[in-house]
Design goal:
By secondary structure, this protein is α+β, with helices and mostly antiparallel strands. The chain has a domain of 245 residues: 2-Layer Sandwich (Nucleotidyltransferase, domain 5). Helix 12 links the parallel strand 21 and strand 22. The longest helix is centred in the C-terminal third of the chain and has 27 residues. The chain starts with a strand and ends in a 13-residue tail after the last helix.
Amino acid sequence: MSVVLAIDAGTTGVRSFAVRGDGTAAGFAYREFTQHFPQPGWVEHDAAEIWIAVQATLADLAGRLTEPIAAIGITSQRETVVAWDRRTGKPLHRAIVWQDRRTAARCDALRDEGVEPLVRSTTGLVLDPYFSATKVEWLLTEGGVVVTPDLALGTIDAWVLWNLTGGPQGGVHATEPSNASRTMLFDIRTLAWSDDLLDRFGVPAAALPEVRPSSGRFGVTAAGAGVRAGIPVSGIAGDQQAALFGQACLEPGMTKNTYGTGSFVLMHVGDTCPEPVDGLLTTVGWTLADGTRAYALEGAIFVTGAAVQWLRDGLGIIDSAEEVAALAATVPDTAGCYLVPAFTGLGSPWWDPYARGTIVGITRGTGRGHLARAVLESISLQTRDVVTAMSEASGHPIRVLKADGGAAANDLLMQLQADDLQVPVSRPVIQETTALGAAYLAGLAEGVWASPGDITANWRLDATFAPQVDTATADDRHAAWTRAVERSRGWDATSRPAAAH
């Protein structure tokens, strides 16, 4: 039996993952890379170090496999941008990471100029430094990157693909729609780079990668890639879209949430691009070689697992994140205490950068267990807000939520989520759904899996959590949560521009 490899080039490290034809894991290797913070709010990566980590993890994993490798897929952090020289293969500046906020003022200026409606209607995004366009503009205007015929620009997937397939010796410079849709330069309806936005941000089209289907052969590995030469590289997707595919959310209305430091809820909404929805992002899920396309609504929740870390590091009421479930289970409820973890503002569906963390309902009887439970409830209730907005916008009421990510292992959280949504929550056996999705896209192109139906058949259930409270109880809890959210909103008046007062 052959295996398919997936390269998951994340924000803090690279994981290479092997998947068998039956969807089971055959091994993985992981390597961290350095985070650079040259100024407050600036976050950078050394793209050359990321490529070294890719080579190292591929070599480590391939050296332990006994099965032949049929194909390779790539998934990665999405909005991070790299500029490099095609002739030398060297990066021209450190990669500017999706978390980087150096272009916030530029985004404010563009919003004042009335550019946001164009961005919203063309890309499905909001005008924010989170996305790639203003990062690329900064590299070309302030970062010392000069436009020449040898300039290459791309997100991390394009950088990894180019190196895998030969780099300066004939490397393929390409990407696919799910990553391109996060650049704020891509028309998600025509599935092509937007001339209007390229002009607006001063980005040369010739430096950008060719956009190809997410599933289809991009090229083959070259010598020095960490694996043998000649292996097809046949699937690419952004991390959250890859997780949607890996969770087999292949029909409209199917929804997943990845519970990490923050959480990302994505709902498959069909093959037609929907109109922009307030509070949510519209993104391309994937495209297949036969022309099939999928769109998704996305809700970004900034603080979920990070709130558990705050209990550990900020308050010291737990020694490890794993303790939170046991502590929260020492009480039957929060006794009316609600915690809104708006430590860096609120994401979807509010998009309020001036909100701040709030705890309400404290009494003399409030203890550590109540706070721990309130944190878990905040993760679940924020997810309910996003899912409700998605269901109302798409016309697809959610039937089940598929959960993955580190915090999905917390049974109490999964039960709270089922109670708040009033639908079942399903957790798969394989939690590496991001890598799994990239592997499926690659294997689908190379015939390892004959059709998307095989991917659905491979999805294996670990546990399902059914609602254990009635709708009225869930709605009462949500109503109290909503009151707490309103008290957190707009709190940091000192940071707000004068026009917002």
